[in-house]
Amino acid sequence: MNLIEIENVVKTYHLGGSDVPVLKGVSMAVQQGEMVALMGASGSGKTTLMNILGCLDRPTSGRYMLDGQEVSRMNPNQRAEVRNAKIGFVFQNFNLLPRTSAIENVLLPSTYADGSIPSAKLRRHGRQLLERVGLADRADHEPSQLSGGQQQRVAIARALVNSPRLLLADEPTGNLDSRTSEDVLAMFQNLNQQEGLAILLVTHDANVASHAQRVIHIHDGMIAAGAFESASPAASAPADAASRKEGR
Amino acid sequence: MHKLASTSITALRALQRNLMRSALTTLGIVIGIAAVIAMVQIGEGSSAAIKATFESMGANTLIVFPGQAVSAGVSFGGGSAVTLTSQDAAAVARDCPSVLAAAPQVNGRMQLVRGGHNWVPQFIAGTSPAYFTIRDWTIAEGRALTNGDILGANQVCVLGQTVVKELFPSGQAVGKTILVQNVPLRVVGTLVPKGANMMGMDQDDILVLPWTTLKFRISGTALQNQNQSQTSSSTAAVSTDQLFPETSQSLYPTPSTSEQTDTPQPVSFPNVNSILVAVPSTQQIPQAIEEITALLRQRHHLQPGQPSDFNIRNLAEISQALSSTSSLMTNLLTGVALISLMVGGVGIMNIMLVSVTERTREIGLRMAVGAKPRDILGQFILEAIVLCLFGGAMGIVIGQGLSKLVQAIFHWPIAVSIPAVVASVAVSAAVGLIFGYYPAWKASRLDPIEALRYE
Ligand SMILES: Nc1ncnc2c1ncn2[C@@H]1O[C@H](COP(=O)(O)OP(=O)(O)O)[C@@H](O)[C@H]1O
Ligand SMILES: [Mg+2]
Q1: Which ligand number lies closest to the CA of residue A48?
Q2: Chain A CB within 8 Å of residue B253 CB
Q3: Cα(A98) to centroid of ligand 2, in Å?
Q4: A85/B370 CB distance under 8 A
Q5: Is a pLDDT exceeding 50 seen at residue A248?
Q6: Average pLDDT of the segment spanning A196-211
Q7: N or C, which end of chain A has less CB nearby within 10 Å?
Q8: How far is it, in rounded angstroms, from Cα B206 to Cα B228?
Q9: What's the predicted TM-score (pTM) here?
Q10: Residues of A in contact with B452 (CB under 8 A)
Q11: Mind giving me the DSSP string for A14-26?
Q12: What's the A48 CA to ligand 1 centre distance in angstroms?
């Protein structure tokens, strides 16, 4: 069954009276438990697409089904609930709360959850997650006392705290050196294989993308290849995108 | 509940992260609340002090004065008519249910002599035993006047402390004899000191004696020496009065001192200068005035439509006027303090706006991981409220300190005002809510994507 299913998603920004089309009719799907890389050049619309997939943004038009739910028509509160319950985010720049301990950072999403879990139990869960990412002894460290790789691992633990169905990682290794990048990517693979967690890895780096089971190529706001697992690379898509590019 | 608790913790953490700034931000609230608390408590203290002063002068006291005498269109001024009698006083005490006690009062101003010392007291009150009840005045030494003293026009007196000091520098006054217009009076008691009254007059500068003694044994002999305007002594003005022609004394020769002492004058009309009335409580004053008016009109045979031949003066009115002046001042100062609270609130708003801008990324992150706009709104409002409540708590403590200081300096009875403390807490929370709302609303309206990208 498809966890993510988008159909003909268009995103157009309005800048000073003129329309800037960023996504030009994107259709794709991600199955449950799949690890997919979304790859494309800088400015091709990866982050824009990921924001829509992450329910942070709404498409200008098109349909988005997440876990069987139509998300594109939801109001901000409903989208916040979906983000909280079903999606974990990992950012390029970690985005940890400054002057706040690792464990508190990990537990941040749980403060916005339905909240019937006692805090002692939550803390235990948070510590388990930190252990899982190899930071059991750093629970009380603040971000400024952690290295980049450690910070990103705290961010991964945070993304997992509400047991999401989908993990969205936008350039998660963009600020890391190659060795720590390998560690982080190995952790993603591990999570995907052991927990069956669906992961969408956004990157411009083919090496990073190679850690995924499937690569979706995005080019200038259009899917160039790999939109559906079963689908063989569409012959027309790249040509179509190329012709548009020339048309500009 | 769980949500509120966790939001509170979040708010506390955020404030703690910028402790110095939080403290400085809330300074305006601290000062405002301290000022409000101090003003309210000091104001209440000063009101209580005024009230206590009045109680010492006999709160809830009415004075009935005779009306004015008019002859050929010439008014002789309030109190010049001869209409009040000691029987009136007795009737008021007996027949008016809202009256606690009533005492006639005959005034005089005379020289007192004791050995080599002499003294003219401010007040000479010829009255009845009820006087001490009405003025709530206790005997320091000896005894008060008795009804027997009144009936027998006994030559006894009770002295205020100032008179004791002037006539008896050695201290022992009870049992000694003083001379008033050559009439000897035995001192049977002394009064506890009361201090100055509202007008700054020394209330202890007083000689209290039976009104019969003053009227029949002393005043009769003293008429010629008396300054009419000071005493408004009844017998001096009576020749003009049409109602009671028999009170005219000029027909009779002035008796000698020895005659006066030996035989009370039967000729004098027993009128008094005023009647002092005690009412159990301030609330009963209007009722008492009504009853006294009805009774005296009836006793004086006044027809409906005829003006009353007496006036009733209300001391409680003066006391209320003074208290209300004091509470007006308190209200004004509290108003100023509230303005400083508003200024403090603007300071809070300012810093909260800065804080929202500084923490844009944090807000974006919180939204990304599932915070709804109202969670963000709640968090920032709560932060402002917590900040204001801390300021309020500090302000309450400082305000109490200021009150204690004023208490130590002025000896006013200043007490912790629970309503003021409760109101301060409520006002601080309200300031936080009102001035925290706009920054919080701005925070809640942020777009998570833009906020996350904010540098
Ligand atoms: N808020 C916005 N307003 C206008 N244009 C935007 C906005 N966000 C992104 N874009 C444009 O959309 C295009 C794709 O951006 P993005 O999705 O961030 O690319 P990528 O993540 O692949 O580098 C870029 O040309 C960028 O300028
Ligand atoms: Mg990007």
Answers
A1: 1
A2: no
A3: 23
A4: yes
A5: no
A6: 94
A7: C
A8: 20
A9: 0.69
A10: 91, 95
A11: EETTEEEEEEEEE
A12: 6
**Structurally, what CATH architecture does the domain formed by A2-247 represent?**
3-Layer(aba) Sandwich (3.40)
Residue nearest to atom 17 of ligand 1 (CA): A45
Task: Write the DSSP string, B168-222.
Answer: -TTS--TT-EEEETTEEEEEEEEEPP--B-TTS-BTTSEEEEEHHIIIIIIIHHH
> Cβ-count burial of A30 within 10 angstroms (0-12 exposed, 13-18 middle, 19+ buried)?
buried
Nearest-Cα distance to chain B for A4, in Å, is 18
Calculate mean pLDDT across residues A37-57: 94
Banded pLDDT at A125 (limits 50, 70, 90) = very high
From the list B125, B134, B149, the residue with the least C-alpha distance to B102 is B134
Exposure of A247 in the CB half-sphere (CA atoms within 13 A): 7
Calpha distance B89→B64 (Å, rounded) = 9
Residue B73: band (very low, low, confident or very high) from pLDDT cuts 50, 70, 90:
low
Determine contact, residues B45/B412, Cβ cutoff 8 Å. Answer: yes
Closest residue by Cα to residue A27 from A71, A64, A70: A64
Q: Which of the residues B1, B365, B377, B452 would you substitute to probe the A interface, choosing the one with the greatest number of A C-beta atoms within 10 Å?
A: B365
Contacts of B342 (CB under 8 A, 6+ apart): B32, B431
**Domain-by-domain residue ranges, chain A?**
2-247
Contacts of B370 in chain A (CB under 8 A): 80-81, 83-85, 109, 112-113, 162
Q: Which of A56, A85, A116 sits opposite B449 (nearest CB)?
A: A56
> Half-sphere exposure (CA, 13 Å, Cβ side) for B53?
21
Write out the H or E segment, with its range, that includes residue A199: strand A198-203
Helix, strand, coil percentages, rounded to 5, for chain A: 40, 25, 35
Does A119 sit within 8 Å of B6, measured CB to CB? Answer: yes
Report the atom number in ligand 1 closest to the C-alpha of A49: 17
What residues form DSSP beta bridges with B119?
B112
- Ligand 1 centroid vs B159 CA: distance in angstroms? 101
Nearest to B372 among A80, A95, A97 (CB): A80
- Contact status, residue B217 vs residue B106, Cβ threshold 8 Å: no
pLDDT of residue B253: 58
For the ranges A140-149, B128-137, B198-207, the maximum mean pLDDT occurs at: A140-149
Q: How many CA atoms lie within 13 A of B167 on its CB side?
A: 29
The 3-class SS string of B66-81 reads ECCCEECCEECCCCCC
- Give the closest-approach CA distance of B452 to chain A in angstroms: 8
